[in-house]
Design a protein that fits this description.
The protein is α/β, with parallel strands linked by helices and 220 residues long. It is 45% helix and 15% strand. An 8-stranded parallel beta sheet has the order 7-6-5-4-3-2-1-8. Strand 3, helix 4 and strand 4 form a beta-alpha-beta unit. The radius of gyration is 17 Å and the shape is globular. It starts with a helix and ends with a helix.
Amino acid sequence: MSDAADRLSEVQAKIADAATRAQRRADDICLIAVSKTHDAAAIRPLIAAGQRHFGENRVQEAAAKWPDLRAETPDIKLHLIGQLQSNKADEAVALFDAIHSIDRSSLVQALAKACEKTGKQPQLFVQVNIGDEEQKGGCNVADLPALLAEAKATGLTIEGLMAIPPADIEPAPFFALLDELAERNGLPGRSMGMSGDYETAVMLGATHVRVGTALFGVRG
């Protein structure tokens, strides 16, 4: 229990320090604990330490483990941070409080139908392929305005943008670009930054950081 609490406290302190240096409020940054592949036994200590926002990559995995955990702690907020298949849109809208990986027209249409059907709309982020990497999800920077316009036309409210910078390259320019794109399109949310670079992301405008290893520890 104490290990989880110590790791959470350390990450929170680093977020607060980065926010102070950027003349921001730490309370304006949402820390998402990336719990993908971790079981309930690994997640409960973080919940006990006060963490409430958690991120999952797959709808099926989240559906298997989170109903019981949320029954124990009803104020948990669940974020889908992995790629979403259009045929899973109904399940995703029912299960998640936020979806960070909208990246194509077919998914916009599927989510719009799911939201209309359920009467519920999670927080929605468009994922941008900020480094123009073929192997990564996300819409191209040039296609972003059209995708945002389509989402608005369907009645969806887009909260912000999400990105994963290329690995092994200084992330700051990519965070700065995502911040600029969000500002240009009038979006308040910037979902960016992971265990190795969340402090930089906070200094460059992140409103949501997605932290796994720094909270759960290195896998054995």
